[in-house]
Amino acid sequence: MAQLLVDSLTINRLSPALGAEVLGLDASRPFDAATVARVRAAFQEHHLLCFRDQTVTDDELTAFSIQFGPLEAFPEKDKTKGKIEVYNVANVSPEGEHLPAHDPRVIFQRNNARWHTDSSYRFVPSLASILYGVEVLPDGAEGGETGFSNMFLAYEALPEDMKRRLEPLHMVHNYEGIRRLEPEMPPTSAGERDAFPPVSHPVIRVHPDRDGRRSLYFTCNTAREIGGGTLEEGQALHDWLREHVSHERFSYYHRWRPGDLVMWDNRCLLHRAIPYDYAAYRRVLRRTTVAGSGPVVGPFSAGGRGW
Ligand SMILES: [Fe+2]
User: Fold this and answer.
1) Cα of 7 from ligand 1 centre, angstroms
2) CA 20 to 30 Å from 66, out of 131, 159, 218, 288?
3) d(CA 8, ligand 1 centre) in Å
4) What's the pLDDT tens digit per position in 93-125?
5) Tell me: the pLDDT tens digits for 288-303?
6) How many whole angstroms from 270 Cα to the centroid of ligand 1?
């Protein structure tokens, strides 16, 4: 692997499409301003950073995360661990009980096997997710990876007529839609529905911080159709895009090691959790989410025009 920087920290590329591992940093301690700046620059370049061999408490994970911006609070209290900013991504309860396959928290993980980007159901979706591996699958176990796909590369590889077709289109992202895809999930509460009404985002995302570079922006966990046509057309287009982004030349599959702390850019990556044998293996990850700074900018949004 190519070594890109040599100093107190080392950054090695993880795949041609995206991602780098970071060695030589202790995430349990505050970074100085220069380190935060270097991490930010590497994040902007690689879209995903994996800090190896970390040991952090929930408070330290929160303190690490907040260096990159304010954190989102999770809407579903039963999936948080202690603090509402720390999400328990696990088939194990916060109390340590290995959950049965029909538990809503395990079903929710199944939905995460669909390509998605975190918090797309918010009007202002998140900037980054940070996931820390506490208990991971043993060597040789099947599944359990987290797959990532680079939406800059996926957009740029589209045929020109598909780019033109997608340019004016939006997709409705619906928090409630998770229940449409996973009917065994218990219904959302009135409070959740009030907090997260359906939102619409452009399917082509314009990135003002990258001179207007474009990416695809859609998900498979909050709905299964693109707007702007009939339901059948929207579903067929959604199916086509799902197949397109699954191409391995855009993607990287992360095989978790204990102590991995992975931080990725939700503005330009999709991700999905590869299913594993939930009854045979325990897996515990903890997640924080760094809030975004504004709504998704599209080709025709104020701020998107002219880029
Ligand atoms: Fe996710």
Assistant:
1) 32
2) 218
3) 31
4) 888 899 988 888 888 777 789 999 999 999 999
5) 999 999 999 999 987 6
6) 8
Query: From the CA of 161, how far away is ligand 1's center (Å)?
Result: 30
Identify any residues that bridge with 207 across adjacent strands, giving them in sequence order: 213
- Asked if 112 contacts 99 with a C-beta cutoff of 8 angstroms, the reply is no
Quick check: 45 and 263 in contact, CB under 8 A?
no
**Token digits of residue 68:** 């990159």
The arithmetic mean of pLDDT across residues 240-267, rounded, is: 97
Look-up of token digits 């669909």: 114
Cβ–Cβ < 8 Å for 166, 227: no
The rounded Å distance from CA 175 to ligand 1 centre is 13
- SS3 for the chain is CCEEEECCCEEEECCCCCCEEEECCCCCCCCCHHHHHHHHHHHHHHCEEEECCCCCCHHHHHHHHHCCCCECCCCCHHHEECEEEEEEEECECCCCCECCCCCHHHHHHHHCCCCECCCCCCCCCCCEEEEEEEECCCCCCCCCCEEEEEHHHHHHCCCHHHHHHHCCCEEEECCCHHHHHCCCCCCCCHHHHHHCCCEEEECEEEEHHHCCEEEECCCCCCCCCCCCCCHHHHHHHHHHHHHHHCCHHHEEEECCCCCCEEEEECCCEEEEECCCCCCCCCCEEEEEEECCCCCCCCCCCCCCCCC
**pLDDT at position 194:** 86
